[in-house]
Amino acid sequence: NVKIIKYLMDNGKRSIDINKQDNNKWTPFRYACIKGYENIVKYLINNEAYKI
Asked: Which InterPro entries match (predicted)?
C-alpha cells in the first residue's frame, strides 16, 4: 500500500535508504515492479528510487 510506504518515508525515526538492497541485491523498486504495484513504483520513482 502506497500510504504505508509514504508514512514510513515521512515518519521514519532514522534515515531510510530508498535504494537499499536486501540479501538478494533487490531494491524496493525492483520488488514493486515485479509484483506490479504501479502506485508504489510511481511513488518510488518520484522519490528518486531508480535502482533495479
From this structure: Ankyrin_rpt, Ankyrin_rpt-contain_sf
Dist CA 49 CA 43 (whole Å): 9
Each residue of 1-52: pLDDT tens digit?
Answer: 888 888 888 887 667 888 889 999 999 999 999 999 999 999 998 888 776 5
Q: Taking a C-beta distance cutoff of 8 angstroms, is the pair 28, 36 a contact?
A: no
* Residue 11 grid cell: 515518519
DSSP string, 23-48: TTS--HHHHHHHHT-HHHHHHHHHTT
The residue with cell 521514519 is 12
Grid cell digits, residue 4: 504505508
